[in-house]
Every structure is written in structure tokens, then in C-alpha cells.
Amino acid sequence: MPTETDVSSVAHVIQLAVAPVFLLTGVGTILNVMANRLSRIVDRYRVLEKIQSNGEFSDLHQDEMRVLARRERIIYRAISLCTLSALLVCGVVASLFVGAASGMQMTRLVSFLFIGAMLSLIIGLLALLREIYIATGTMHRIGEHS
């Protein structure tokens, strides 16, 4: 039978785990945005491939395909980094509960996992920002040629 101390200890761990779980929600939302951007890139690339197969292809289309391929690589990297961040946050939550259940001191592990999660998220968001910069720069270049 669990004692009152055991229950309050678990309750405390749950309180500690709430912030990382909210962080997971935010990262999930960011991943959804990134996946939608990737989907748009792939859709536009397929349209250009169809134009190419119809023989209506120009140098502008070729340039756009190169830019789309570059954007795809960057957004894929951003998705990978943000997914890694989410996995590391899951590791933080799991470590909190393992530490509480086993009585082991997990402070260093939790700290390293959380720092890794934040660094991965920061780099992923910077990659997203870079992809957006390339996308808006492409729009301006295409507008100049019209």
C-alpha cells in the first residue's frame, strides 16, 4: 500500500513534468507548421516536374526547382532537429519519473537532456527561419522577372 509520502513524491514529480509536457505541445505545433511547409514545397516541385515533362520548361522553372530542393533540405533538417528536441524532452520526463521511482539522483541527466532539447530546438528554429528567408527571397526574385 502506497504511503502518503510516496503519493506526494509522485505528485511532485508530476508537477515537475508539467512544464516539459507543455513544451512538447509547442514543439508539436512547430513540427506541424514545418510539415505543412514541406508539403507545399513538394507540391510545387511536382507541378514544375509536370511542366518540365510537357516541354514548357524555362530557365526560371529550373532555378525555382533548385531553390525548392534547397528549401526542402533545410526544412527537413529543421524537422529532424525539432523532432530530436521533442524526443529529448520525453527523455527528461521519463528521467524524472525513473529518478523518483528508483530513488536515484538524475539531476545531471535531466539537465543534459533539457539543454540538448533546447539547443536542438534553437537550431531547428534557426533552420526554419533560414528556409523562410530563402522562400521570401525567391518570391522577390520571381516578381522581378514578371
Estimated structural class: mainly alpha
The span between the termini is 76 Å
Number of E strands: 0
- Global shape: rod-shaped
Beta-strand fraction estimate: under 5%
Q: Which regions are unreliable across 5 or more consecutive residues at pLDDT < 50? A: none
Written description of the protein model:
The protein is 91% helix and 0% strand. The chain has one domain (4-145). The model has no long low-confidence stretch (mean pLDDT 90). It has helices spanning 4-53, 59-102, 107-145. Helix 1 packs antiparallel against helix 2 and helix 2 (59-102) packs antiparallel against helix 3 (107-145). It is rod-shaped and about 75 Å long.
Task: Walk me through the topology.
Blueprint: H1 4-53, H2 59-102, H3 107-145
Structure summary:
Helix content is 91%, strand content 0%. It is built from three helices and no strands.
List keywords for this structure.
146 residues, mainly alpha, 3 helices, rod-shaped
